[in-house]
Design a protein that fits this description.
The complex is a heterodimer of chains A (333) and B (456). With 333 residues, chain A is of the alpha+beta class. Chain A contains 8 helices and 14 strands. In chain A, helix 2 packs across helix 3. The two termini of chain A are 38 Å apart. Chain B has 3 domains: 212 residues, Rossmann fold (3-Layer(aba) Sandwich), CATH 3.40.50; 97 residues, Ubiquitin-like (UB roll); 96 residues, de novo design (two linked rop proteins). Classes of the chains: A alpha+beta (333), B alpha/beta (456). The interface between A and B is medium-sized, with 32 and 28 residues. The structure holds flavin mononucleotide, iron/sulfur cluster (2 copies) and FE2/S2 (inorganic) cluster.
Chain lengths: 333, 456
Amino acid sequence: MSDKVKVTIDGITVEVEPGTSILNAARQIGGDIVPPAMCYYSKLEGSGGKCRTCLVKVNKGSEKDPRPMPKLVASCRTGVMDGMEVQNITSPEVIEARKGVVEILLINHPLDCPICDQAGECHLQDLSYEHGVGDTRYEFERRTFDKIDIGDKIQLHMTRCILCYRCVYVANQITDNRVHGILGRGDASEISTYIEKAIDNDFSGNVIDVCPVGALTDKTFRFKNRVWFTKPVDAHRDCPTCKGKVTLWYKGDEVLRVTGRKDQFGEVEDFICNTCRFETKNTNSWIIEGPRHIAQTSVISANHYEFAPLPVIKENQVLIEANKVEFERATKI
Amino acid sequence: MARKLLLENINVPGIHTFDVYRQNGGYRSVEKAIKSMTPDAIVEEVKTSGLRGRGGAGFPTGMKWSFLAKPEGRERYLVCNADESEPGTFKDRYLMTHIPHLLIEGMIVSSFALGAKTSYIYVRGEMMPQIRILERAIAEAKNAGFLGKNILGSGYDLELYVQPGGGAYICGEETALIESLEGKRGNPRIKPPFPAISGVWACPTVVNNVETIAAVVPIINDGGDEYAKVGNGRSTGTKLISASGNLKKPGVYEIELGLPVEEFIYSDEYCGGIANGKRLKAVVAGGSSVPILPANLILNTINGQPRLMSYESLSDGGFQSGSMLGSGGFIAFDEDQCIVRNTWNFSRFYHHESCGQCSPCREGTGWMEKVLHRLEYGHGKMSDIDLLVDVSKKIEGNTICPLGDAAAWPVASAIRHFRDEFEWHVTNPKEAMERNYGLAKYADPLPKLEEVVSEN
Ligand SMILES: Cc1cc2nc3c(=O)[nH]c(=O)nc-3n(C[C@H](O)[C@H](O)[C@H](O)COP(=O)(O)O)c2cc1C
Ligand code: SF4
Ligand code: SF4
Ligand code: FES
């Protein structure tokens, strides 16, 4: 199509719809050149721009205005222009800035992964593993908060929160009358409900799925098991409230947890209702579709019986060349 | 006596009242604009004047106005930024307290030029007296037919509202201000879109500083050409400077842009020199956000030219040896002041005022403050100094709004120019608790400093 725009990211050119963000253009290319995103969530309107892990360098603004952008930009909130040239992993400046962001995200993080239910599917864990540095230079007391229950199914462990605002956008989107949001300012900000009120909404459980860290967790799964010992299985049911397409997490015959189906970028395909999530943990209630594909880079696949699908670069020779490392990693078994 | 364009009548008794203000030539520009000029002609006049935003960034006002989108059937808004909370800056408050009608007059002319039928003055919440003064002035102006329906029989309607803020520095950032004005949490928006396209209630909006809007009055009265004759190069007109610190006569001064810094500090017409017979050690020239300079570099540029109070001259030398005019908050430090302590104090402010939206600023400002606190209180390490520079670099340029930069620059510049003093705090912690480092070589003639700079 002629109205598509051409953008080049780390030397790989792709044609996308006008108005696409740099991040989404990169996701269409796939592989190592996709910037990590901790706050942007394609299903949440207005999200992104906050965590700054997706920073990239724009060397050429567009065909019309080829000037480079003066600063690194958040790829999740910057639209592509025709002829734009972007550097992500090929720019030392970007790598350095990202390292900085990761270090900064971790200075107040409790690093309590051994007792955190999110461990294994935590984006902050992945991020620090891939982009971080081994040591911290932060030598002060870390910020802590008391745990609070938001209703009887969801627990908020604010100490782990990275203030990505995703859960706030979920609440914005599922209700006209949001009762939870951010209180306070700066590093004293916290997610809270108005006087610890329960969020009373059929879809409130989705805040658990969108939370990139272990700040919002499912109380019905609390400490039941480590996620990498459980087996994810796709299933569906005829649900009057939502589409009923979920992932069931099994230990033996028992369904320990129900979540939305997450794609390779950690985003759910559809939001699911609380009845499916919290109340329907019986195999008989579900029609099983088969094992859930888990990205091979994830720790969850460590104990897994099925290897990952090849990334999008499988067929295109040019992209394979450009993404050699990623390709080899994905095909090594 | 230099020419005054804004504060000429400031000492006339009762100038805060409508009648006295009017008798002294007030509201002439409204009559002229509404009766004899088109909105576009006013915008052109402001362009000709070369007026640059007085809120900190110095963006040409006429150009900003011409960027305002004008879609059919959409409201447009003018918002006056009276949130003034930058440490060291207190000129807007002075203007609003003593000559409120100048701001109202400027708001009417500017709103007419932009086609705004509703305009707001967003005032920092702590300034309760000024809010009352403005509300009273608005009522007086309305009474006299300068506001409300059918102004001076022209068919132009304008409602002007005063909106108190909650008292957060971040609400001075224009998009945070707009959010706050809409009744939301004052988080800066991610740009683009810029307010000129989508501002208040997603309508095209111009946000201007109090002083910028007040300067429109002499521009319309005397013509943009006349205004452009005052000043120096691309820094046209006059500027209100809030002078504070160890000066003999601190206060708000209206200066012609291009005045030598030395004259501003030492002449009796302005600050009258350093208080108590002390010597000057350092100056923060444009409010706490701009780089601090040692005495020798504030009085002269690195090339040995006398430093002038203008946008260009103050930023001469870039960040290596220059600073910025910013919002005109001029803070002077004498030889008894501790730069480490001051840097810590500034960083405490930014840590407290960060909105917390983006990670580098939210976490980095607190980190810097803690390290600076440790240095100031004698527990610092040599490596802390480079750590601070590194953290400031991780923040600078990587955030949503310029508050991140504003937090990073004072720290980076203090270390750039006063590294010896930081190191002395590490090597002599006990002594540093009892006395200050003193003037050292910071006022020495320049060539010596040039060597230090070129080493970096
Ligand atoms: C953190 C922050 C605080 C600011 N505070 C103020 C302020 O108090 N008053 C002001 O006029 N501009 C302030 N600004 C600048 C405004 O964003 C904006 O540039 C200005 O109001 C534009 O007006 P001008 O073009 O007339 O200067 C601030 C900017 C930032 C980033
Ligand atoms: S609780 Fe989770 S989703 Fe909500 S802001 Fe914190 S990290 Fe983000
Ligand atoms: S830079 Fe600081 S003040 Fe500005 S948006 Fe980010 S966190 Fe908020
Ligand atoms: S994902 Fe872009 S800033 Fe967070």
